[in-house]
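User: Reviewer 2 asked us to show a designed sequence for the structure in our supplementary figure. I'm pasting the structure tokens here. Could you produce the per-position amino acids so we can include them in the response letter?
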């Protein structure tokens, strides 16, 4: 597929949104084809993956990529525009104050260290106590609520039923950061060897697997890939 205005427009859309569902990505691509496509044929849904692949060959040398992921908490597929830099938090220093960045780091830390990588919303707001430093006053809880809403819109976090989770963008963009700083608590799915935060836990052992990986695995086998006992947890 020749790189064209279709690719440029789709890249711009992904960059602007940060995180979009696969359905949104397809709808965006249909609109772009209507404007820039060389024919009036509506693209098939699998064309999205082809467009993304071609874009990634162009932007990967600049430490950027559009990543595809299945997000277990909402059982939704996403495309996420991410930076591959070692410390992506530093890229936000022109957008947020020092206390706001301290608050962001505190959220990443506590979600990483918490059981099942989720926190009550009130616990997230209480982390404002850690946001003050170097003569800066801590954030107000009202500002923290605004930031959580903003960061949720960007895909960094998800607030669901008064619980806060890592969002799809944080899982992809901060994979290297979290594995470097919290290597002792980060685990990987034994089926795909990718960092796992949310998934399905075996009833007979501590093993946790990505739901998407497990569904594919159970089409062929019926035992847990770790303890080998019959898999009994519904997916």
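Assistant: Here is a per-position design you can include in the supplement:
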């Amino acid at each position: 597929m020749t790189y064209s205005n279709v690719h440029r427009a789709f890249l711009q859309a992904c960059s602007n949104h940060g995180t979009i569902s696969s359905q949104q990505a397809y709808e965006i691509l249909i609109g772009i084809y209507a404007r820039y496509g060389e024919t009036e044929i509506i693209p098939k849904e699998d064309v999205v993956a082809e467009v993304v692949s071609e874009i990634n060959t162009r932007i990967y040398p600049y430490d950027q990529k559009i990543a595809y992921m299945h997000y277990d908490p909402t059982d939704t597929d996403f495309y996420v525009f991410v930076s591959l830099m070692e410390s992506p938090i530093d890229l936000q220093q022109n957008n947020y104050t020092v206390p706001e960045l301290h608050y962001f780091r505190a959220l990443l830390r506590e979600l990483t260290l918490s059981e099942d990588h989720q926190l009550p919303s009130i616990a997230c707001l209480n982390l404002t106590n850690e946001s003050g430093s170097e003569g800066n006053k801590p954030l107000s809880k009202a500002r923290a609520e605004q930031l959580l809403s903003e960061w949720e819109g960007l895909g960094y976090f998800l607030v669901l039923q008064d619980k806060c989770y890592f969002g799809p963008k944080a899982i992809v963009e901060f994979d290297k950061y979290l594995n470097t700083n919290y290597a002792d608590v980060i685990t990987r799915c034994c089926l795909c060897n990718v960092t796992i935060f949310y998934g399905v836990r075996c009833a007979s052992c501590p093993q946790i697997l990505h739901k998407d990986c497990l569904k594919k695995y159970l089409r062929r086998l019926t035992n847990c890939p770790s303890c080998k006992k019959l898999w009994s947890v519904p997916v």
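For the response letter, you might also mention the following. Residues 19 and 204 are 35 Å apart (CA to CA). The first strand starts at residue 19 and ends at 21.
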